[in-house]
Specification:
The protein has 25 helices and twelve strands. The chain is α/β, with parallel strands linked by helices. The protein folds into four domains: 107 residues, Alpha-helical ferredoxin (Fumarate Reductase Iron-sulfur Protein, Chain B, domain 2), CATH 1.10.1060.10; 53 residues, no CATH class; 124 residues, Glutathione S-transferase Yfyf (Class Pi), Chain A, domain 2 (Up-down Bundle), CATH 1.20.1050; 126 residues, Rossmann fold (3-Layer(aba) Sandwich). Strand 10, helix 24 and strand 11 form a beta-alpha-beta unit. It is globular. The protein starts with a helix and ends with a strand.
């Protein structure tokens, strides 16, 4: 009885929120199949493809299939990388369909006490309030610097935890407190461009050095960098996890914070955040009173690699420090590539560096398996994708594997560690590489 009632509620939710016109845009041509990592790594299981998932959504919406655990599993196992979208000749808005379906399912299904607590803590506190995130990472800093980490590793206590937790602990960077002041404007001596800097939640706490390097680079290129005080997490993790209302709340807070001053661009250095920020107008399409502001916000959103290329960094004299020679390769951030369609800019920057040889990673356009917190929830599929990726990474013989997103960076660090390449290769954010190894004149 309960299952039948759940099916009815989800069917009604799909009818209200999963747009039929978007479902019907799918022509079932199959162009998405070779672009889909879960399809390729599930022995070509059609239910793990975009085409198959759209068919399942439509079948539930039309009452042709009762909603059950297998359908939920199919939708959950999707990485949300959206590689299917640029591959689709019909322009199917798969990401929008997936988020709407997940939102209905999470709202209507009954959660266990453990799951309720985890979602409440993560989505209503950790990724909603930056101070909560700062306190959480403060515990990690204490763990790293107090000697507890060394003791934990020496005693082997981490072996009692799931292997992915032990692996992630090993590659987590040493955390430092962010030195970026919210509400402050970092002025440039040239002052040709004024930008607002989106610091992010993970970037501001786990990768604070990357944020500092971003501000310095932008100042060097003639930007006044304003850091809005009341900005919050972009909302991507909530939006991708079936918590669209919470994502909208974050979006509204960010729009108000960033449009308080007139700026030329709103820049970010995290591909996943940037994609979600650029789609605030879609997220708030049912809020007409906010739509114009959302459009203005999204139109000004830009990735750091696109901005610094616009500012002429590739026309400057870029060279590796100390006469160094190095081979570079690059792993795309899925959302930066597939949503914002930023492909050439980071490559152009790397190719313009004297002393650096750029080698294209054959599967750079395919997801690394990180996908936010996917690698923690669907570890088996994530590691299957990562292991395959590392075969191609190793073949490049690169000394530096660069990327433009924090989740991708941690995943590639993990891949390097698992593949035994730590003494040969380093994974870095593109901005950190420019700051540490490149003279920008």
């Amino acid at each position: 009885m309960a299952e039948a009632q759940l099916h009815v509620r989800i069917q009604e939710g799909f009818q209200q929120e999963v747009e039929e016109e978007k479902l019907l845009d799918c022509m079932r041509c199959g162009f998405c199949l070779p672009a889909c990592p879960t399809y390729l790594h599930s022995n070509f299981d059609e239910t793990q493809s975009p085409r198959g998932r759209i068919a399942l959504m439509k079948a539930v919406r039309d009452g042709m299939l009762p909603f059950d655990d297998s359908i939920e599993e199919s939708l959950d196992l999707c990485l949300g990388c959206r590689a299917c979208e640029p591959a689709c000749p019909a322009g199917v808005e798969y990401g929008s369909l997936l988020e709407s379906a997940r939102n209905v399912i999470q709202r209507e299904k009954k959660h266990s006490v453990k799951e309720k607590a985890a979602r409440y803590g993560a989505f209503k506190h950790l990724f909603r309030n930056q101070r909560t995130m700062e306190r959480a990472t403060g515990f990690i800093r204490f763990y790293q610097k107090s000697g507890i980490q060394a003791l934990t590793r020496k005693t082997g206590i981490l072996s009692l935890f799931p292997s992915i937790m032990k692996d992630m602990e090993a590659i987590l960077p040493i955390l430092d407190k962010s030195r970026i002041k919210k509400g402050h404007t970092y002025e440039s001596t040239k002052r040709t461009t004024k930008i607002a800097f989106f610091t992010g939640c993970m970037m501001d706490t786990i990768f604070s050095q990357t944020n500092q390097s971003t501000v310095k680079l932008l100042q060097q290129l003639g930007c006044d960098v304003w850091v809005p005080e009341n900005q919050v997490c972009c909302g991507a993790l909530q939006g991708h996890s079936g918590e669209l209302d919470l994502a909208r709340e974050n979006a509204i807070r960010n729009i108000e914070a960033f449009l308080a001053q007139d700026v030329d661009y709103i820049v970010n250095n995290a591909g996943g955040c940037g994609a979600f920020l650029s789609e605030y107008d879609h997220l708030l399409k049912d809020h007409p009173e906010l739509l114009e502001k959302a459009k203005a916000f999204s139109e000004k959103t830009i990735d750091i690699s696109t901005l610094i290329e616009k500012l002429g960094v590739t026309g400057r004299s870029l060279k590796l420090k100390d006469g160094r020679q190095a081979i570079l390769t690059y792993q795309d951030s899925c959302h930066l590539r597939n949503v914002n369609r930023v492909v050439d800019e980071p490559r152009a920057i790397m190719q313009s560096i004297d002393g650096a040889t750029y080698v294209e990673l054959p599967t750079a356009d395919q997801c690394c398996g990180s996908a936010g917190i996917y690698n923690l929830i669907h570890t088996e599929m994530s590691m299957r994708i990562l292991d395959s990726k590392m075969d191609d990474v190793k073949a490049t013989e690169a000394q530096f594997l660069l990327t433009s997103n924090p989740g991708c960076l941690l995943q590639m660090k993990l891949g390097i560690e698992k593949a035994g390449l730590s003494d040969q290769m380093e994974a870095m954010h593109l901005v950190d590489f420019l700051a540490e190894y490149v003279d920008v004149e």
